[in-house]
Fold this protein.
Amino acid sequence: MRYAIFSDVHSNLEAFQSVLQEIEKLHVDKRLFLGDIVGYGANPNEAIDLLKGTADVTLAGNHDFAAIDMTDVSYFNPHAKEAILWTKDVLTPAHKEFLKGLPVDTVVDSITLAHSSPKEPQMWHYIFNIFDAIENFEYFNTRLCFIGHSHHPVVIERNSEGKTNASKDQIIQLNEASKYIINAGSVGQPRDKNPQACFVIYDSGNMTVEFKRVQYDIASAQEKMRKEGLPDYLIERLAYGK
Ligand code: ZN
């Protein structure tokens, strides 16, 4: 089976469309979305419509729940908060209802999926480093767990001897005896200093994980955000991927 796994679209329609076009060419069997379809960008309703027509599995992220008052935004930075208030204003009632019904984690074909962390998926903890990951390996029973949330693509492996290491290689051959936490990066707001949209192809047949990067029309996404009066900081960071 070939899976396209993607996360953190954040209302960036241009990035999302480009990623879906690329996925189309890659002949995948399933499309798995790890949450945060909204927040930050200018097209929350359009992004949800596109998602509903394409994803086989959809999770909610913290921004999705923030936009429908299902999670606390007091820890959000001021820019994120401003974007969420705007998103809340423009989301259609039907789309709010859609977000309300989404899970924050699930298991599909023996693959664990969570937006933030397998340990306490609705507490929105970040897995930023190996120490965060080590704790989390105890909280899922499958060999693979895919996450999003930090917008930093990475593969963290715990081998059969209990040793943990992280890799940012583009293609990774998975070991039969290891357990993995894999961050799929972000479609709509990459933060690893590469502004191109990011997603993952997981091939369960040959046991590979490959990070894909896709160019998209950043200027057009920025222009729409400007028109909506979204924060400059959020507009500018798209060009730098951070
Ligand atoms: Zn996010």
